[in-house]
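In the previous chapter we treated chains in isolation. Here, by contrast, the input contains six separate entities that must be folded as one system, with a combined length of 836 residues.
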Amino acid sequence: MPAPPAPHTTSPVDAAGRRLTTRGQKRRAQLMLEGARLFAERGYHPTSVQEIVATLGVGKGVFYWYFSSKEEFFLEILRAAQTDLRRRQQAAIADETDPIRRVELGIEESLRWFREHREMFNLFQFAITQEKFAPVLRQGQQVAVGDVVRHVKEAIVEGRIRDQDPELLAQAIVGVMSHLARTYLYERDESVEAVADGAKAFCLHGLLG
Amino acid sequence: MPAPPAPHTTSPVDAAGRRLTTRGQKRRAQLMLEGARLFAERGYHPTSVQEIVATLGVGKGVFYWYFSSKEEFFLEILRAAQTDLRRRQQAAIADETDPIRRVELGIEESLRWFREHREMFNLFQFAITQEKFAPVLRQGQQVAVGDVVRHVKEAIVEGRIRDQDPELLAQAIVGVMSHLARTYLYERDESVEAVADGAKAFCLHGLLG
Amino acid sequence: MPAPPAPHTTSPVDAAGRRLTTRGQKRRAQLMLEGARLFAERGYHPTSVQEIVATLGVGKGVFYWYFSSKEEFFLEILRAAQTDLRRRQQAAIADETDPIRRVELGIEESLRWFREHREMFNLFQFAITQEKFAPVLRQGQQVAVGDVVRHVKEAIVEGRIRDQDPELLAQAIVGVMSHLARTYLYERDESVEAVADGAKAFCLHGLLG
Amino acid sequence: MPAPPAPHTTSPVDAAGRRLTTRGQKRRAQLMLEGARLFAERGYHPTSVQEIVATLGVGKGVFYWYFSSKEEFFLEILRAAQTDLRRRQQAAIADETDPIRRVELGIEESLRWFREHREMFNLFQFAITQEKFAPVLRQGQQVAVGDVVRHVKEAIVEGRIRDQDPELLAQAIVGVMSHLARTYLYERDESVEAVADGAKAFCLHGLLG
DNA sequence: AATGAATGAGGATTCATTCAT
DNA sequence: AATGAATGAATCCTCATTCAT
């Protein structure tokens, strides 16, 4: 199966929708990086636009040149992160044909990504609780679940997984992964491999298996 | 095994630590109920103290008579909810001696509680993302995990569960439960029983079992 | 010259003008004492009625039983202090016939009183700057100046003081006294005697004398 | 003796420490002028930031663009006034070599300054009673006293003033001056010259001289 | 005489956003 | 593209005062 085409990402634009120069793209990216960091550290509401631009040593005008509002800015961060995470997952399983291995590789790569993007975990978790942001999050998660569902279905067809609701299984996997990521990756700073092994074992065999 | 004594909850006090009259206790509870509802609906930061008291038709001073700050108020809500959830879990498993059944009953009862207290789910989720509130949440979750760990250990001793890190197993269960609660209980409004069955099956047997 | 009759102090009343029981008088005095202390320590505005009653461990109702408002309460404190100071000055000079000695004794006794009532100094100073309270203060100071003026006039008649505006001299004396009290009595904690000697020397001879 | 160089005043900055444009400096000065006026008229606490900005017809944000807090704003006013007063005193005595004349010129010029800056007198008086502001005031007063002390010492060396504690003398002079300023300059609206003459006479000769 | 509870106007401060330059 | 300045609604919280009991 060929790797799916890279998701069509719209090229970065300013608040008025104009395409950006190279320098402009750098600024925009800088803002999003810094914003994600600060939002993760202190929360969305407690972080002011002022703080974000001050950290970069620029004026407030810059922010509103690139983003139409704080809310849109945050959404943009969420979207970009989801896109990036998905790309990484896809790349990780591209060469694997065994559906169960694909699930395992997906878990591993996801944990690796979350390890590298600590900030985003809290941001996702927060976003899901706010009506304004939840839709974007849900959509992204649905995509991720959809990916897993495909593998699970394949494995059910092959008779390697009991015949159950594939989506429920996929959701459960996502639940295990994200909770273990928070607990072991962030709170206890354990290695991706250790956590991934635990997650894979539990997801495949449960308590009794 | 006798039901454990109800945890000694300190009697409600006002912002200055004075004990409350019956009327006062009622007001305090009213505020917390309404506060939880509003925080869940619109978020902690977007909900103002003004809105909370306005909903009850009382003056702003009332709020600060009972709570020293909005932050403390929120913490109080979190603590009370955790205490209540735990009480319910304990009560549900009190008469069961089989450790694996205990885990199952715990899952069921937790989902039932979350179904009845929709508001609290989002609140917990949000709280865990904010440094100010996370400690309280983590502590409560640690207690819950500790409960599960005890059952799992027992079952490992009895040779009914493979010998693995009991805490990791417990954490995975919590992860499954909370993610399924969000997805199926809240977003899709399914029945507690259906979700509980799915959760139990996954937790006990995993994908392959 | 006979000692003037003790100033007719109206007997203490509650906020509605009713005469007080012995116990009531004690409470009232307690409140004023504590209020003066707190007002001096943190300022009039920054000190809340709540704090005053809390220090005495009583409810807010008590305060409003005895005083009709915070403002009136403060005025009452000022009046009582002025009355007390004057009584002490009068008593100190009662037996002295030499007008210049009388001025000296007045300076000494005033400094002694201020030493014993540190709180009141700041309160007076503050009150004089607020339009609401200044009239009471001015009136009290005018009385004090009037006392000195009488002695000075007498001394001028006797030819012992140069013929100048007696009030200006009296005011100057008051200025010296209060500034030296602040600087040496409070800020540097020197003895009443030392400060009094300095004040007397300066007031009698000036720089050149 | 050449006039000392004007004290190096740091150029005005906004609340975050950034240097200001010409327009910004004007605004900042405007705010301080208006603030001093209002604080003097109604007191520090009874005057709200809202009132200050409303008087200038600007938004509340303007205030916090230039000053980090109401407290800091007040301190800034105090500091600026003290600096200005000192500059005037220095300028007034620059060309005079006789130490006693210097004291006299200092008294005169100070009274003139206070006449022109009625607002500041009350502000100083108030500030000295509040722990938050007193340090700044005391420091300024210490500088003023130090100036006088120098002249007095010189005069003592020349044998023109009796050998006494020069600082006590200086403090007494300050006391006379400020009390007479309040009484005659403000309450009775007399001329600077008349008050200055009275003050000088008293300070040089005292009652008896 | 006294308390706990309530009121609600008002205070300092923040902050997303806009605008002139 | 970017800045400094400005806006003003909204926020949390305080506090003098009142009231029912």
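Chain A has one domain: 22-205. Chain A touches chain B through 50 residues (CB under 8 Å). Compare these points with the single-chain example from earlier in the chapter.
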